[in-house]
Amino acid sequence: MHIIPNLLTILRLLMVPLIVLLIIERQMMGAFYLFVIAGLTDGLDGFLAKRFNWSSELGAWLDPAADKALLVSIYVTLGLFGHIPVWLVILVVSRDLLIVGGILLSMMMENPVGMKPLLVSKINTVGQILLAAAILADLGFALGLGKIVTLFILLVAVSTIVSTLAYLYAWFKHMVPHQ
């Protein structure tokens, strides 16, 4: 049974190219529904892992990778089609690359850093999800969510910057401890 959360995560990873394809094909309703299903599998795998102690080291690596693959792919695709400002796509992707790069560098330097998600990072992720969902819903159902989308863009921009700075601070503190 411990494998169920990992299978849900792998299912979410497999949904990523389908969601991207639906966006490219301008099938925004389908992209929205699949994005919601991906979100539900994320919540379910986390619930099962915690509730029944079905967590695993593989899941600890796969789950955030699936989340990043989903959000980065959607942001890049929506950015290419002009639905998300390119500067925001660059900001979001750069933050993720900095975090992954910092983790890899710390491992290469044999000083692995254990990065726990910070509160601001959780806020950032929720904002990214809400922005993607609002854009897909607006494009799929013509809901007129322009003002809400603008608010989410600001939330994501600010929380991305604050989150990046917080992770950089934690990384430097770990890598260069005070003597």
What does this structure look like?
- The protein is mainly α and 179 residues long.
- It has a single domain (3-175), classed as Four Helix Bundle (Hemerythrin (Met), subunit A) (Up-down Bundle), CATH 1.20.120.
- 82% of the residues lie in helices and 0% in strands.
- The protein has six helices and no strands.
- The chain has helices spanning 3-24, 28-51, 57-80, 86-108, 119-141, 146-175.
- The longest helix has 30 residues, at 146-175.
- 27% of the residues are buried.
Short note summarizing the structure:
With 179 residues, this protein is mostly helical. It is built from six helices and no strands. The chain has one domain (3-175): Four Helix Bundle (Hemerythrin (Met), subunit A) (Up-down Bundle), CATH 1.20.120.
CATH superfamily heading:
CDP-alcohol phosphotransferase transmembrane (TM) domain
Q: Give the DSSP E fraction (strand runs of 2 or more residues).
A: under 5%
Number of domains: 1
Instruction: Flag low-confidence runs.
Output: none
End-to-end C-alpha gap: 46 Å
List keywords for this structure.
179 residues; mainly alpha; Four Helix Bundle (Hemerythrin (Met), subunit A); 6 helices; 82% helix
Write the layout of secondary structure elements.
Blueprint lengths: L2 H22 L3 H24 L5 H24 L5 H23 L10 H23 L4 H30 L4
Helix pairs in contact: 1-2, 1-3, 2-5, 3-4, 4-6, 5-6
